[in-house]
Specification:
It is a multi-pass membrane protein. The chain is an alpha+beta fold and 167 residues long. Helices cover 64% and strands 9% of the residues. It has 4 helices and 5 strands, in the order αββββααβα. The longest helix is centred in the middle third of the chain and has 31 residues.
Length: 167
């Protein structure tokens, strides 16, 4: 039973780490001479421009930023609630509250990655001054980590839903 508990805790911490890296790091769209994320656009690793309200489609990026931050916060809150429920739940009860919060985190990261997937091309076309070299790029590892975090938080949420507290 301790092995299962350790696996669940490590899986949850891994999910949170993936969310932190995907949210903070600047590699949602990359190329040979540039990288862009939900916070800034950098060309030649030195010329970085913060994304602000002068960008066309800034509200879309704000939605991605907000849902990624919310997802990370919800994942951390779910872990704290899981630890509390380990000591407070009666034997045989399920970790439903932890599961609901973790599945909400899953939903938030899915929304953020889906918005970015759908609107990325329009964002690049509407801001040619900032994205002039970026048209030939590819999705970066932070974007991929966001989708992997979606899968991890989904599986984790289902595990908490199925899991019962044992002695």
């Amino acid at each position: 039973m301790l092995v299962l508990l350790a696996f669940i805790i490590i899986f949850h911490i891994t999910s949170a780490a993936l969310l932190f890296v995907a949210t903070i790091d600047n590699a949602w769209w990359v190329g040979e001479e540039f990288f862009a994320d939900i916070w800034r656009v950098c060309i030649n690793n030195t010329n970085c421009t913060e994304i602000n309200d002068t960008f066309m489609g800034y509200s879309m990026l704000q939605a991605v930023q907000a849902t990624m931050i919310l997802s990370t916060i919800l994942c951390c809150v779910a872990f704290l609630i899981f630890v509390l429920q380990l000591f407070r739940l009666k034997q045989g009860e399920r970790f439903v509250l932890t599961s609901i919060i973790q599945l909400m985190s899953c939903l938030c990261v899915m929304i953020a990655a889906a918005i970015y997937t759908d609107r990325r091309e329009d964002l690049h076309k509407d801001n040619p001054d900032f994205y002039r070299l970026i048209s030939d790029g590819t999705y970066g590892y932070s974007f991929i980590l966001a989708w992997v975090a979606f899968a991890f938080t989904f599986v984790s949420g289902l595990m908490y839903l199925i899991l019962r507290k044992r002695k």
